[in-house]
Amino acid sequence: MEKKDIIRTVMEKEYQISPEAVELIYSSNSPEDLLKYVLSTVNDSVIVISIEDIDLEGFDAFSAGESHSDKIHASSTEKRKILSGTSILSSRSENPSSEPDSFVVPDLLSEPVLSSEPDVITTASDPSIKLSQDDVPDSSVQGIVLDKAYEPDPDIPDASNTPDTPNIPNTPNTPNALDTQSITVLSDEALASDLASDSFSSVKTATPTFSFHSSLDENRPVSSFFGQENSLSSIPSNRSFRTESSSSTSERGILSSSIDEYKHYPGKNPVTVVSDITGHSTCVGEYMQFVQYFRDRYSRLSEIIRSRINARPIESLKRRSFRRGGDGGSEEISIIGMVSDINSTTNGHKILSLEDPTGSFSVLIRNSDKELFELASKILLDEVIGVAGSITNDGSLMLATKLIQPDVPNNVQRRTGSHGKAVLISDVHVGSSQFMEDAWLDFLDFLKGESDSEDMRELAASVRYLVVAGDIVDGIGIYPDQELELDILDVYDQYKKAAEYFREIPEHIRVIISPGNHDAVRQAEPQPALPENIQAYFPENIVFVGNPAFLELDGVRLLIYHGRSIDDLVASVPGVSYQEPAGAVLEMLKRRHLAPTYGSRVSISPEKKDYFIIDPVPDIIHTGHVHTLGVQRYKNVLLVNSGTWQGQTEFQKRVNLVPVPARVPIVDLENFNVKILAFD
């Protein structure tokens, strides 16, 4: 077993490992057995496996005792047993079965390869991000022009191309098995004839990961999100996520630990934490938690849509008791559902399968309706939408005339009355050999008011907040051979060095830090704030929050999200690219959800509450992760994707990735104008 194999195996189990621990395991007589022992005995509260976590004496005793070994193996197998169950949303099904469908928690590696232990969720390394050659996409933004060439990464799927999938024969048990010979469209006889000879082929807009996404599963129930009461008793209670370790209330000014009460940080530059997973994670990967998660998502997003349309439950559509209009067509019907499947017909029409707590229903979008069809091509699996249209005579299909996303109301009012500036940064990556220390020190000099320019000193004097959207350090064991690109090989030493830098920031500036996928927290999102033993390195004026987190900065609403789901949106939504990362955030806002597709590149912990729903609408959404810069406005909401403080690494060179480092967006909290400062 090579060292890189040790690191990769540890990553797959959602831990990090110190170089010293890697060396100890590698130099042992049986590295593979020792590694298995360490992973089976390490405490769930451990983030980084160090030498102290490797019990060599216990391993010797473990190796000598057969019966003890059998017990450990059985325990490990039980903990990672594949979850099984039926539907996630509906409490009843038209085709009830005594046997639950399998429900597989995926291994989310960068390559779509299923692990032999599929319920252990892992994450991939940073995506391949390219530099935009366009100006920052907002006319009011003052600053630099990004003029380097962008070259597409061959490893990233082209969002403009829909993957081809072989035709799937219609069978009575598949969700897309419509009786096309009997379809009669009340308002369009010609289309009925077209559909009668049309077969369906599965064309997914996103790679399916959970079994309930796959139209290949012939035993898939009618509804696959909302759950079935008669199957719950057979569901094992196995852990598939490492839960957040319990901790006492922080001494940093948190006034309340209740999920129903906000956390207030008073002072000259006050902060209110409105929504944050920190201290409230209850997920252990049980079946019912998936049910609760999807029900919460559906309930809250459908309520937003319901304020705009008068929707019926899906079960009512199958009663076929609709009035005929004067022109012979049926009345327009509206439904709200979660998208469980996306297919295409051989004639190019699109079929969406929608689900609500009462059942599932198929919706046809005709390619002759160009505007509607273009909107449907951007629909993602698991997002909640509303659909209006007419129903066929047999009640088996809706012909869509309108698609409604939750979106942001047109009348969103921008908050006024605040003052001063907020500095938005992310992806510092302290500890990396490519960390741009000189540029970072220039940035610190700016914050301290020590710039040569009078204008810069005046601007610095107005800064009230510094918000960091994740990846404070480069971490350990995030990707194979990472240790070859590190100046600081211990993750705790990385945080100590980062804390030294942050201690230089003037005390009158309130600093807010949220984690990212390189930080020492669980990889499954939503992520809690950095552990208290790491927080202790930093000065007292810093507020640590989770990812994502909804805050109020002296009345201005700010939503922080590291931005991992940008990878999914670039791969799945036509027109979204790494060139303009704010465009991906715009798609999140239209869906009112930060990570619409479940089970793709983003590992999502099924908490009782969906922390990714964008409600209420913020004034600013701040993201990072993609190491480039983007600023955009949409319906009075400012979208900022900040850059990085890390130069091009060897890994980025291999994938032709050119980051945009040392660019700093500064937002005026009074009018939300943005300036971008360059420190390179």
Structure, described:
- With 680 residues, the protein is α/β, with parallel strands linked by helices.
- It is 22% helix and 16% strand.
- The protein is built from 16 helices and 21 strands.
- β4 and β5 (271-276) form a beta hairpin.
- The two termini are 42 Å apart.
- The relative contact order is 0.15.
- Residues 66-87, 91-193, 195-223 and 229-260 have low confidence and may be disordered.
Provide the descriptors you would attach to this structure in a database record:
680 residues, alpha/beta, 7-stranded mixed β-sheet, 6-stranded mixed β-sheet, 16 helices, 16% strand, globular
| Strand segment tally | 21
As a percent range, the share of strand residues is 15-25%
Cross-sheet strand order for the largest sheet: 4-5-15-16-17-19-18
The dominant shape is globular
Estimated radius of gyration: 26 Å
Largest sheet: 7 strands, mixed
Q: Classify the secondary structure makeup into a structural class.
A: alpha/beta
Residues in helix, %: 10-25%
Q: Give the uncertain stretches in residue-range form.
A: 66-87, 91-193, 195-223, 229-260
* CA-CA gap between termini: 42 Å
Tally of DSSP helical segments: 16
Mean pLDDT: 75
